[in-house]
Design a protein that fits this description.
Elements lengths: L1 E7 L2 E6 L10 E9 L2 H7 L9 E2 L3 E9 L11 E4 L9 H4 L26 E4 L2 H4 E3 L6 H4 L2 H14 L7 E5 L3 H12 L4 E5 L3 H10 L3 E3 L6 H8 L5 E6 L4 H10 E9 L24 E4 L6 H12 L9 E6 L3 H9 L7 E5 L1
Parallel strand pairs: 9-10, 9-12, 10-11, 12-13, 13-14, 15-16
Antiparallel strand pairs: 1-2, 1-4, 3-5, 3-7, 3-16, 5-6, 6-8
Helix pairs in contact: 5-6, 5-10, 6-7, 8-9
The structure holds zinc ion.
């Protein structure tokens, strides 16, 4: 089969690989749709260290091709969505409610990290009964593929933000995760949602997804404007959806005492992330900083699909480009360099 791989640091391309085989609890999925993620770029540029001929990609849907002898819930031909994070559900971390950390920090993140990812004609799913969900007939592949990571991560950011009904929320950076955080904040009952970004296309999408106010950091003082929008009180919850020191610091600054900073950003550079000491109440202002990695699992995917069925969100609005699988090198470059106003490129197999 054809696979699109990270050949080495800063080098990608196509290669041939054998179709993977399913162990007793696993399935092999024939890929139909995938999305490129900014974290694929982080990986190629060395954020998690060197890799050799590792198949990239972690967001995909497809048709079940092969099932292991112990798989109960799926059969060949089923249309399925697979979480970007595929935990080991028997691990103590999973039993403690932290399945994305099963097997160690970020251990649930296997695709394009510890094993081949989904940018291939077929891919392998461990613990299939627990890690994938059926896609119902009224949900398209083009939409369902957003459950894997973008919806799951964005909604996690809102869930971790502990948003009170009617509360004020600021979302820093309006890429796909930030946009889904806005939807998540609305679903969690936020009364005021403030989006921060300088790119007009993203601002427009943020308004569509439910932002009440937009702050453009290229034109105004973000902290001062958010304090003004909240009558000097600050927000109950600040969501960091970029992964930069500046934004996490601003998130801490605008969060009111007792509030929560929810980090969804991938901090891919440097050895430390600094905390602004005074704005953190010298460590005593009861400002919580919560972190999380995209939740996976069948239950999670089924809940996200229910939101799609109910029309609560239309994530496919974020698809700016569509490419055939054979054009993945071109699509990857556009995403890597953030060319042509790209948000999410959809890959059709
Ligand atoms: Zn992703």
């Amino acid at each position: 089969m054809k696979a699109f791989v990270m050949k080495a640091l800063d080098a990608v391309g196509f290669t041939d690989k054998p179709i993977p085989k399913a162990g007793p609890c696993d399935t092999i999925v024939k890929t139909t749709r995938a999305l490129i993620c900014t974290s694929d770029s982080h990986t190629v540029h060395g954020a998690i260290g060197p890799r050799e001929n590792l198949t990239l990609g972690h967001e995909a849907v497809g048709l079940v091709h092969e099932v292991g002898s112990e798989v109960r819930l799926f059969k060949p031909g089923d249309r399925v969505v697979v979480g970007a994070i595929t935990p080991d559900w028997g691990d103590p971390a999973s039993q403690a409610g932290h399945s994305s950390q099963s097997g160690g920090a970020l251990g649930g993140w296997k695709f394009a990290n510890h094993k081949d990812g989904v940018f291939a004609e077929y891919f392998h799913v461990n613990e299939a009964d627990a890690n994938m969900a059926l896609i119902p007939p009224d949900v398209s592949d083009d939409t369902a593929v957003y459950c894997c990571d973008m919806m799951s991560t964005g909604f996690m950011a809102a869930e971790n933000g502990d948003i009170p009904i009617g509360g004020a929320v600021a979302v820093f950076a309006l890429g796909p995760v930030g946009l889904m955080s806005i939807v998540g904040a609305r679903l969690r009952g936020a009364g005021l949602v403030i989006g921060v970004d300088s790119i007009s296309k993203r601002q427009e999408l943020a308004r569509y997804y439910g932002a009440d106010a937009i702050v453009d950091h290229s034109r105004e003082d973000v902290v001062a404007r958010i304090m003004k929008l909240t009558n000097g009180a600050g927000v109950d919850s600040a969501i960091e959806a970029l992964g930069s020191e500046q934004t996490i610091q601003n998130a801490i600054k605008v969060t009111k005492p007792g509030g929560t900073i929810s980090n969804a950003g991938y901090h891919g550079k440097g050895d430390y992330v600094g905390i602004p000491r005074l704005d953190w109440g010298v460590g005593m202002a009861e400002k919580s900083i919560r972190t999380g990695l995209c939740p996976g699992g069948r239950l999670r995917m089924e809940r996200l699909i229910r939101l799609l069925q109910a029309g609560r969100v239309d994530p496919a609005r974020m698809t700016t480009h569509t490419f055939a699988f054979r054009e993945l090198d071109k699509a990857f470059e556009i995403m890597d360099q953030k060319l042509d106003g790209v948000m999410k490129p959809l890959i059709v197999f």
